[in-house]
Design the sequence.
């Protein structure tokens, strides 16, 4: 029987069936549903699989490594930019190696549907010298999880599984395999490899470098990297991950005519690539994201004119692929598409009706004539929509936590009335350390923590900041006289403007917690938050 | 046999419920299905779409190629037109006539209808009004699905069962409302000359 699953859900079910003991993650589009599926799975509950959200991707990955250290299988899940946050542990755990199977699932977002860049996680995999898997479809994503955990334990390395938005958020029928039981606790025979003092790290790093040939051997023989040579020698297609679907969409009826190499496991199978290269007059590389494979091929061969892809201009360097772009690169005739009728106007996302962030922005906007319109530093979350008209409040959005530290840097440079706007969960994710910097120097900035008691943009997940913000700020050292609270409601507008004006006039650090629950929270979620806050006090 | 359907609307308008009915029905008929959807920022009042592909053969791309959609179902008239580049030359258009206005430069709705009428196979229904008359404006999406059911290659039985399955945890009243909405939509499509074809 087939089950209808998102690519993300297929990953989650695959992990459960492969003997997972715990998933660690911070929500981030397009990766969120992987962890949510495990959180709501009855089977996962029965199996006592850990699935509570972590504070950020770094803490998540470290916890996953800790679980792996005990010998159990763990998974850590994030969006592409989350891997930047976790990159410290990611780069080092390939050196230490793992114990129980550890799979790092990273969902890239080409075309930036919900992200600030298009970074390609395959670069990170190569950088850390770990194996990378890249599924083409939902069934393969499911099946790959069994392989990924076994492979991780065989090589004693973390395995990076790269997803992309279109596979994460597309459903199809998936057949399940039988379930493997979880590992029991078996601590590493020799723990010194996890203690990366230089003398240990040197040994471990050598081992890691030596593993490269083994990994290439695996890739060469992997059924995930399937080479088909046809009689036609004109064009050889290398298709990676989801790009394989777009190729097959165009050529499936004449598939036997084309020579193809499907890539779903890295490092690249060099021998298979050489065979294709020798066989064909031209190599066309279809890959979602950066031209990772294309660049490598330029290193492999002398005749680079034979190699076509993004760098050669046959495919666009930015944005995601689709069947039409791939058809054009293959030289398959396309009828010119109709254009969107001119009458259609844009409909950008916007804050929900009745959202507390809007009232907060109205409060700030009331003071903009006095302080200038370029002083507000923003952060990642729904409130980033305050950048757009009609609000136009926020000027910057760079990475999780940057509102506070950018405001501080600007104040260091002499900018007066610098304001940082950061959400409750973004604050606990990456804002607390920056706050300590600002506390330490008593920087003349006003930080507004817009606390809606949820990780709202990704679907109102539970925020670990709930009920703790006030004490966190005091604990970090914010002066109690300049730690204020406001309720962003229209009826409080005038008093909120006054409160903000007062704190802006203070020539030191102020923090204002702007408290109002997300309108998307259900009644049950609101009750749950209330009882959690009550239990804390 | 391959059918490509685009569902369109504004984040929060319920196009994914239509998608879920189609998915469940297709799965029950044991044919291939792929359905992509939008999660994340656009769900906050932005333009959203879902690509639904149903076939008796393996489906590769999760996305419908340009010019290959057989049908666009929209819960909002301007959002219907946004996906015209995907429509094939014999493609069908079905939309709710009610605009969802959350921008300052929303076009005149009559001008939108006029644009839609340029395509021969179109059906503009006041699905929201029909849904209200049945008892809940939220089932407007099922009115549209009912209308579309006349040209979608899935049996009525499996579509109705899919609706029942999806709402099985809701009250009997909600299931009945959704089924009623489906039949109302179907009736309207049948009365419309282009749609008066039995599959």
Sequence:
């Amino acid at each position: 029987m087939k089950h209808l699953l998102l690519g993300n859900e297929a990953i989650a079910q695959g992990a459960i069936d492969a003997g997972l003991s715990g998933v660690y993650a911070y929500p981030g589009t397009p990766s969120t549903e992987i962890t949510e599926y495990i959180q709501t799975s009855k089977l996962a509950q029965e199996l006592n699989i850990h699935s509570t959200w972590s504070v950020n991707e770094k803490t998540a990955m470290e916890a996953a490594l800790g679980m792996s250290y005990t010998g159990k299988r763990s998974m850590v899940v994030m969006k592409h930019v989350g891997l930047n946050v976790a990159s410290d542990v990611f780069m080092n755990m390939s050196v230490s190696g793992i114990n129980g199977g550890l799979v790092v699932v990273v969902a890239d977002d080409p075309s930036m549907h919900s992200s600030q860049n298009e970074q390609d996680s395959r670069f990170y995999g190569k950088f850390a010298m770990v194996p990378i898997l890249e599924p083409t479809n939902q069934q393969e994503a499911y099946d790959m999880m069994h392989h990924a955990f076994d492979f991780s334990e065989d090589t004693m390395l973390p395995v990076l599984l790269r997803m992309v938005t279109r596979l994460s958020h597309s459903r199809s029928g998936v057949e399940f395999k039988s379930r493997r039981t979880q590992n029991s606790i078996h601590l590493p025979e020799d723990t010194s490899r996890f203690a990366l003092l230089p003398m240990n790290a040197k040994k471990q790093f050598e081992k890691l470098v030596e593993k490269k040939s083994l990994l290439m051997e695996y890739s060469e023989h992997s059924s995930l990297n399937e080479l088909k040579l046809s009689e036609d020698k004109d064009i050889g297609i290398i298709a990676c991950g989801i790009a394989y679907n777009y190729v097959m969409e165009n050529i499936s009826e004449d598939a036997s005519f084309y020579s193809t190499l499907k890539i779903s496991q890295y490092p690249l199978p060099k021998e298979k690539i050489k065979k294709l290269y020798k066989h064909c007059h031209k190599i066309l590389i279809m890959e979602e994201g950066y031209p990772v494979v294309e660049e490598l091929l330029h290193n492999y061969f002398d005749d680079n004119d034979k190699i076509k892809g993004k760098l050669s201009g046959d495919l666009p360097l930015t944005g995601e692929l689709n069947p039409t772009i791939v058809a054009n690169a293959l030289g398959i005739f396309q009828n010119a598409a109709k254009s969107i009728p001119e009458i259609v106007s844009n409909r950008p996302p916007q804050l929900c009706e009745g959202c507390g962030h809007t009232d907060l922005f109205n409060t700030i906007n009331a003071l903009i004539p006095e302080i200038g319109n370029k002083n507000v530093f923003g952060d990642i979350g729904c409130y980033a929509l305050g950048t757009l008209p009609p609000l136009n409040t926020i000027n910057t959005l760079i990475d999780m936590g940057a509102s506070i530290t950018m405001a501080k840097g600007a104040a260091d440079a002499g900018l007066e009335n610098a304001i940082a706007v950061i959400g409750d969960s973004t604050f606990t994710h990456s804002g607390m350390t920056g706050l300590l910097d600002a506390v330490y120097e008593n920087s003349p900035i006003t930080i507004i923590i817009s606390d809606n008691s949820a990780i709202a943009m990704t679907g109102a997940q539970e925020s670990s900041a709930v009920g703790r913000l006030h004490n966190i700020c005091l604990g970090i050292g914010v002066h109690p006289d300049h730690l204020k609270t406001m309720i962003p409601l229209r009826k409080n507008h005038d008093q909120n403007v006054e409160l903000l004006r007062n704190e802006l006039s203070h020539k030191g650090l102020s923090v204002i917690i702007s408290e109002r629950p997300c309108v998307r929270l259900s009644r049950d979620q609101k009750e749950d938050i209330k009882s959690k806050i009550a239990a804390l006090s | 046999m391959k059918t490509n359907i685009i569902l369109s609307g504004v984040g929060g308008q319920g196009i994914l419920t239509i998608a879920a009915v189609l998915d469940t029905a297709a799965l029950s008929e044991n044919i291939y299905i792929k359905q992509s959807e939008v999660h994340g920022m656009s769900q906050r009042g932005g333009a959203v779409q879902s690509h639904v592909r149903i076939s008796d053969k393996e489906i590769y791309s999760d996305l419908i190629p340009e010019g290959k959609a057989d049908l666009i179902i929209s819960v909002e008239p301007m959002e219907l037109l946004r996906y015209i580049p995907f429509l094939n030359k014999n493609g069908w258009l079905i939309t709710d006539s009610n605009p969802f206005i959350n921008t300052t430069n929303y076009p005149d709705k009559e001008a939108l209808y006029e644009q839609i009428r340029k395509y021969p196979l179109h059906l503009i229904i006041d699905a929201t009004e029909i849904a209200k008359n049945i008892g809940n404006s939220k089932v407007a999406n099922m009115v549209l699905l009912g209308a579309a059911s006349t040209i979608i290659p899935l049996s009525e039985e499996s579509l109705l069962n899919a609706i029942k399955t999806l709402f099985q945890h809701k009250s009997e009243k909600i299931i009945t409302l959704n089924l009623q909405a489906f039949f109302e939509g179907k009736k309207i499509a049948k009365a419309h000359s282009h749609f008066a074809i039995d599959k």
Remarks:
- The mean pLDDT of chain B is 93.
- Residues 2-195 of chain B form a domain with the Pyruvate-ferredoxin Oxidoreductase; domain 3 fold (CATH 3.40.920.10).
- Residues 12 and 139 of chain B are 13 Å apart (CA to CA).
